[in-house]
Amino acid sequence: MIEPWVINDDSPVPVSSAGVVEALRSRIDSGQLETWLTSSSGGSLTFVTNAERAMVVLLEGEGDPGEHAVDPGTAGSSDGFVLSNGQGEEYPDEDTVPIREAFRLVEHIVGTGSWPADARWVVDR
């Protein structure tokens, strides 16, 4: 059985892989650019976007440096990543992915608990 994931500051009702992208889009539309999801096993999934690119980070538990999606060879950086505390961030584009790819990654992780086989990501541990 696939473990359930919940959006940390929303309802405690689990979000499905089929519904997670809609939930993220709704949060982005309301100005919430940072979303944390937690699995029943204690893992976390972080999604931070500027509405064009997103940083997607998968953590095994509290204190884990995790793993993050990458777009190797992409030059430059992007700003406008606003955290829930209001702090604005800028990230190298190779450490973020286009938002459509980020949605695909999150949907797969929520559905399976792991990265898609064709995903590009690096371990930060």
How would you characterize this protein structure?
With 125 residues, the protein is an alpha+beta fold. It has helices at residues 17-29, 99-112, and strands at 5-7, 34-39, 44-49, 53-59, 67-69, 77-82, 88-92, 97-98, 121-123. The protein is built from 2 helices and 9 strands; from the N terminus they run E-H-E-E-E-E-E-E-E-H-E. The strands form 2 sheets. Strands 1, 2, 3, 4, 5, 8 and 9 form a 7-stranded antiparallel β-sheet that branches. Helix 1 crosses helix 2. It is globular. The protein starts with a strand and ends with a strand. The model has no long low-confidence stretch (mean pLDDT 94).
Features:
22% helix; 2 helices; 9 strands; two-stranded antiparallel sheet; alpha+beta; single chain
Q: Structural class per helix/strand content?
A: alpha+beta
Ends apart, CA distance between termini: 27 Å
Question: Sheet bearing the most strands, described?
Answer: 7 strands, antiparallel
Give the overall form: globular
Spans with pLDDT under 50 lasting ≥5 residues? none
Could you tell me the number of beta strands?
9
Radius of gyration: 13 Å
Indicate the proportion of strand residues. 25-35%
Along the chain, the helix and strand elements come as: EHEEEEEEEHE
Mean pLDDT: 94
**Total helical elements:** 2
Helix content: 10-25%
Task: Describe what is shown at a glance.
This protein is of the alpha+beta class.
